[in-house]
Write a structure and sequence with these properties.
By secondary structure, the chain is mostly helical. It folds into two domains: 75 residues, Alpha-Beta Plaits (2-Layer Sandwich), CATH 3.30.70.20; 32 residues.
């Protein structure tokens, strides 16, 4: 089903569908805008970079991403999870050690 935001968008700028089709439409729109003199038009998040793979939600922008409340250099959230995994593993080891100590002293 189509999301309500795409149905309700009065400008039609929020679209829903196959990512490849949407990416193709977006590139065509950028080309159209550039042919009309908007050389600053570009797609944000449509192509992979060193810090993320291509996003499944991308934006046609006319200015710096920060002007739209977007990070200038987006990153895939998984890049920040390694510390979380390490803390979770350490916490599990601490709790298991405490459980072993409690069982050992309870005897």
């Amino acid at each position: 089903m189509m999301p309500a935001c795409a149905k309700a968008c009065p400008t039609g700028s929020i679209q829903f569908g196959e990512v490849a089709d949407l990416r193709q439409k977006a590139h065509a729109r950028v080309a159209e805008l550039r042919s009309r003199g908007r050389g600053d038009a570009y797609l944000y998040g449509a192509e992979p970079s060193e810090s993320y793979s291509a996003l499944n939600a991308f934006f046609l922008l006319l200015d710096a991403p920060s002007k739209y409340g977007l990070p200038d250099r987006p990153e895939t959230p998984q890049h920040h999870l390694s510390g979380d995994y390490a803390r979770a593993a350490l916490g599990t080891l601490v709790w298991l050690s405490l459980a072993v100590l409690v069982i050992a002293y309870a005897r």
